[in-house]
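Batch job 17 of 40 flagged for manual review because the log was empty.
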Amino acid sequence: MSSKSVAVAALFSVFAAASPRLHAQTDRTIVLLVKDAPGAPTPAQIVDYSNTWPHAAPPPLTAFDVADPQASYYLMADRASGDFLAWLEANPHSLRKKLEDYVLVTFNSAADTSVALTALQNDPKVEAADMPLAMDFRTARLSGTVIDALAQPESTQYGWDDMNLAAAWQVTGGGYALIGQIDMGLDPTHPALIGFNGSTYIKGNFLPAASKDIGLTGLPAQPGFDATDVDEAKAEWIDASTCTPVAAFMTPAHLGHGTHVAGL
């Protein structure tokens, strides 16, 4: 198995551990990547074919004549769109594009899956086909918490001292690093986060084309929802709680955490 396949299989195993449905089907699931080449099917064609009954003829891969898939779904359920999708299509050999193109194909039995794996690995339109790595996750019970006092006064940048980020930057030589952040959004106009002023790079890490609000993934659509708007101050549906007694479409009452984390 290639290092790229190992990495993707490991990523899938995280998804499988988080989802009982995937965990139960690991022995019947193949992680599949088709080639980006003329005549090869798209990931969407694989998913549509597998999830449509009766299956259309002919199948998008000849390997499916050997073992018929039961269902397929994307490794990354939240699909790229807008400027980010355009970037992926302009960079078809990037690792991020390949992650977008991986699909998970399930079969009726472990025996069918074994036969399908051999057929897929020998299909000329397939770039990679592997079984997901089996992993078991356990967590330790937290018995207590202690907040250590700092040896020196905290600076005005809360969290910077705690994580010793000044030393981390020395490892990079003070150079450029692109950070992937999953949090509560950010302030897209913050001067420390803006990546570009026109076409001039000004050292911020916020890249709108590579950012997306995934807050409604798997949930019903909301009127006016814009997945390209990652501003944590934008109005959204907020359920009733101790902070907001009445459920309503409103600006969040507590802001700043996502911007703070992005700044760090």
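Reviewer: the log was empty due to a logging misconfiguration, but the result itself is present. The longest strand covers residues 29-34. Unflagging and moving on to job 18.
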